[in-house]
Hints:
Number of helices: 8
Order of helices and strands: EEHEEHHHEEHHEEHH
Largest sheet: 4 strands, mixed
Strand content: 15-25%
Mean pLDDT: 89
Structural class: alpha/beta
Number of strands: 8
Helix content: 25-40%
CATH topology: CBS-domain
Radius of gyration: 20 Å
Low-confidence stretches: none
Amino acid sequence: MNTQYTALSAAPLKTGTSFVRPFQALPERVKLSNPALDVMTDLTKISVVSVRAKTSMDKANAKMIKYGVRMLLVLDDSEQVAGLITATDVLGEKPMRFLQNMGGTHADIMVRDVMTTQRELEVLNIDAVRNAKVGDVVLSLKQANRQHSLVVSEAVDGRQTVCGLFSITQIARQLGAQVQSFELARTFDEIEAVIARG
């Protein structure tokens, strides 16, 4: 081998060694006039938590609790986005409606039975988000009556890639609202109260 190279010295891996995880530092406090990117979870910096459509709903809920999130991206067997599932899907009326229609027990319910499917989802384009303000995102979520919104980049051929997401709960916290409930209407009320206080 060429003598211009030098082998690197190796050392044993120490007990208790950790590893680097993706990290995004969002501003603790924002105003409605801040850039929308100040409240967007950037998936180039933070790994999205995902689940398969064939996973049990209870396992999906446990995963949300473990990672401290209220939404999971649902993937199909080809690693394509099949939809999303939220804590509201799991803890709301959907499981009871499914059991009334299909029978079975709570443990029989799969993610695919209560998720919001890809066909039902509307997304925001990253180009529009780059020029938007936090207030624009809040209004968009309110008009869509949604807690979350996916952000996509679009290739020349029209293929979309999810590159970010918005959570109304996270936005409310960054605006300084005291979010006690995960009811969507209450969260918007809290945001409006913060805005009224100035």
